Prior knowledge:
By secondary structure, this protein is of the alpha+beta class. The protein contains nine helices and six strands; from the N terminus they run βββααββαααβαααα. The strands form two sheets. Strands 2-3-5-4 form a four-stranded antiparallel β-sheet, covered by helices on one side. β4 (about 65-75) and β5 form a beta hairpin. The two termini are about 25 Å apart. Mean pLDDT is about 85; it is low at about 1-15.
Amino acid sequence: MAATTGATPSAHHEHPGRMDGVCNEFTVFTKIKPGEADALREDLTWLGDAANDENVHAALRQIGTLHDARHVIFDNDTRFMFASVFDGSWDTYIDDFAKTVVGARFDKVFSHSEGFPGIKDPGVKDWFLAHQEPAGVFVSAYPDLTVQQIYKDQRVDNAFQDVLDTTEFRTALDNPANAELVATPAFQKLLEEASA
C-alpha cells in the first residue's frame, strides 16, 4: 500500500489534500456563525435522516466518486468540520455536488458557516480552499479501488452469488464432464472466495 503522509504532495498540487492510490481526502474546518450551532445540529440530524432518502443515494451514485463523508461540530459549538474521501480531481468533485440534490443539502449545512457563498457560487472553490487543511496522514483500506469499481465488484458478486444458488450450477459442478475444470486451482480459489 502506498500511504501518503506529511510531506508527500497531492497529485492535484493546486489543492491541499492527500492521496492514497486513487483516493483523495478533503477536510474543511469552518467557524460556525454565532448562535447557529443548534440550528446546524438540527440540520445535521435532518441530513443524517435524509441520507437514507432514495434521491440522495441516487445522486451519490450519479456523482459516483464519494467514498464517505463526516460532519462534526466541535470547540464548544464554535467550529465545524466536513471530511470526505473521493476519487478523481478536486475541481470535478466540487462541481459534481452543485449539480445534484446533494448540493442543496451542502448549502443548508454550510449556511451556518461564516462566509459560505453557496455551492453554486463561482467563489465557492476559493472559499473551500481557504478552509481546507490536508490530513497529516491519510491511508485508504482499498487505495486502488474507485467507487465505480466497488459498485461493479458488488454487482458482479451479487450476480455470481445468484449463480451459485441455482440447482443448475450445482448440477454442473457434480457432472463428471466438468471434473477437470472444477479441480483447477483457479476454480477452487473462486469457490473458496465465494464461500468466505
